[in-house]
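My hope is that you will study the protein record below before we discuss the fold together.
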Amino acid sequence: MFYRPEDGHGLPHNPFNAIVSPRPIGWISTRGAAGDNLAPYSFFNAVAYVPPQVMFASTSAKDDRDGTKDSVAQARESGVFCVNVVSWALRHAMNASSGAHPAGTDEFAIAGLTKADCETIDCPRVADAPAALECRVTQIVQLPGAANFAVFGEVTGIHLRDDALRDGMFDVLTFGPVARLGYRDYARVESLFSMERPDD
């Protein structure tokens, strides 16, 4: 099968998200004039080591946010955001925070999550997340499409839960990161393998 996206795929559901998978979930927390906000984004990744940088992209809009969503609007307003890592234990809370709520709704409360303060930025984070990345916005890029925005940030502080550290390494098997697949599907990291690079 071959198709051009502009012509449509002819399938019951768009396969694009299933092709580009698994994708890490950036559970983005922000603080703005409207209050605290929390929402998951599966268009998310780390993009540089030195200095450490990440990005997340929002691809839809709300009527009360002038062509975008709460996370982008508040990151633009405050200049900061926090990325919270989604563990298996937090999967239902992550899903609960994904609802389309009016601006000013506190998804921490909806999902029954405890907040903690960030250290380097004025922003809340998910207290029980196995890791959190405090970020300062470096740029917001409007992508082709009506409501497509990519938010880039430099990581200024990193939280690691002590029980996720084993022998000096961040051990993902201790908490089972949740990744996004296509459709309504997710994956849990339960096993791993290592390979040496040819030049190691």
